[in-house]
Design goal:
Helix content: 25-40%
Cofactor: Mg(2+)
Radius of gyration: 20 Å
CATH architecture of the largest domain: Alpha-Beta Barrel
Subunit structure: Homooctamer; tetramer of dimers.
Number of strands: 14
Pfam family, one: MR_MLE_C
Strand content: 15-25%
Keywords: Lyase, Magnesium, Metal-binding
Largest sheet: 9 strands, mixed
Bound molecules: magnesium ion
CATH topology of the largest domain: TIM Barrel
Number of domains: 2
Distance between the termini: 31 Å
Number of helices: 11
Enzyme class: lyase
Structural class: alpha/beta
CATH class of the largest domain: Alpha Beta
CATH superfamily of the largest domain: Enolase-like C-terminal domain
């Protein structure tokens, strides 16, 4: 069998939503007084954009084989990521068979290890990796989930992240994850407001609907432990990413000290098999939440997911749209999925990477039939209405 070779890789940036879903207009729930580690400074408390959460923008990586087949993927890495792809990673991709994904990952990771290991470099590697899986699927005319061993279920079920779990329930989701709004710097009054919000939502959604709190790295161990105990009364299902991603010791202690039955989750800002090995072996959490576009791509997620499975942990990716749908449907320890409500009022379901992708599947009534993932590769295309800018060449 003759395998086409990769002729060209290029990296572009685009503004306004897409891979960088914090890159929003004024008035969006995702930027409305959400607790962050920067909220200890009052001037950065009201808006995450004020401290630069949207500074990077979306990176788009496109690959093209010598038979004309094309693949692409996106991440959050902006112009710095584009530099790394064009000036460093391209050499490991061009001229190689479209099937050489494992070797490409290994070479990208270890050639950048002296300045990489996580963050923007691994985001960029993730986008290249996902573009290669997309290309392989499009060449073989198979969806990525088929390349991964095939689905283990007929549909995906979703919980929704956003400011309105009550609306998420009406839209058919199995649960709603609220952004925590007040951090330790806002004292006892802030803690009361956090609990009042949870109580209000519990009253609106009834006893059986899942409610979770996403704390976006904003708390300290004492505050997180107190919040967990007080929130237990309102049936909080899990407490997410409440400490710094570097504080493995804090997560392990939190997990030992929260009410029985409540889950600790984290990992959206963790990367690679080595980072998740720390979380799993130190007993930091019950569910790991790698972002497929940030953790190293599908090639690394295979290893991360297997490690979680061996530890009896669930692997439920952060957001990640179609990139996670194609993976999760093939794994028993990924029984449900997250969608981030990208509509400004969290009142309707938009594609996860709106408006950058065409044909991005969207859950209906909180569910996505596997038939919606039946197209080659990840089954999506770039929206020609979004203007790509290529800042570097090679
Ligand atoms: Mg989160």
């Amino acid at each position: 069998m003759s395998v086409p070779k990769i002729k060209h890789i290029r990296a572009s940036v685009v503004r306004g939503g897409g891979g960088d879903y914090h890159d929003v207009e004024d008035g969006h729930w995702i930027d409305d007084h959400i607790a962050t580690p920067m909220a200890r400074y009052p001037e950065y408390r009201q808006s995450r954009r004020s401290f630069g959460i949207n500074v990077l923008g979306t990176l788009v990586v496109e690959v093209e084989a010598d038979d004309g087949t094309k693949g692409f993927a996106i991440t959050t890495a902006g112009e710095i990521g584009a530099f790394i792809v064009e000036k460093h990673l391209a050499r490991f991709i061009e001229g190689r068979p479209v099937t050489d994904i494992e070797r490409a990952w290994d070479q990208m990771y270890f050639s950048t290890q002296y300045y990489g290991r996580r963050g923007i470099v691994v985001n960029a590697i993730s986008a290249v990796d996902l573009a290669l899986w997309d290309l392989l699927g499009k060449w073989r005319e198979e969806p990525v989930h088929a390349l991964l061993g095939g689905p283990v279920r007929d549909e995906l079920v979703f919980y929704a992240t956003g400011a309105r779990p009550d609306l998420a329930k009406q839209l058919g989701f199995i649960g709603g994850k609220l952004p925590l709004q007040h951090g330790p710097a806002e004292g006892e009054e802030g803690l009361k407001q956090n609990l009042a919000k949870l109580e209000d939502m519990r009253n609106r959604v009834g006893d059986d609907f899942w409610l979770m709190y996403d704390c976006w790295m904003s708390l300290d161990l004492n505050y997180a432990t107190r919040l967990a105990h007080k929130a237990h009364e309102f049936g909080l299902k899990w407490i997410e990413e409440c400490l710094s991603p570097d504080d493995y010791w804090g997560y392990a202690e939190l997990r030992r000290n929260i009410p029985r039955g409540m889950l600790v989750t984290t990992g959206e800002h963790e990367a690679t098999r080595w980072g998740f090995r720390m979380l799993l072996e130190m007993g930091c959490c019950d569910i790991i939440q790698p972002d497929v576009n940030w953790c190293g791509g599908i090639t690394e997620l295979i290893k991360i997911s297997a490690l979680a499975d061996a530890h009896g942990a669930l692997m439920v990716p952060h957001g990640s749209g179609p990139y996670s749908y194609h993976f999760c449907c093939t794994r028993h320890n990924s029984p449900f999925n997250e969608i981030i409500m990208s509509a400004p009022k969290a009142d309707r379901v938009l594609p996860a990477f709106h408006p950058l992708l065409v044909n991005e599947p969207v859950p209906e009534n909180g569910r996505l039939k596997l038939s919606a993932l039946d197209k080659p590769g990840f089954g999506v295309e770039l929206n020609p209405a979004c203007t790509l800018h290529r800042p570097y060449t090679h």
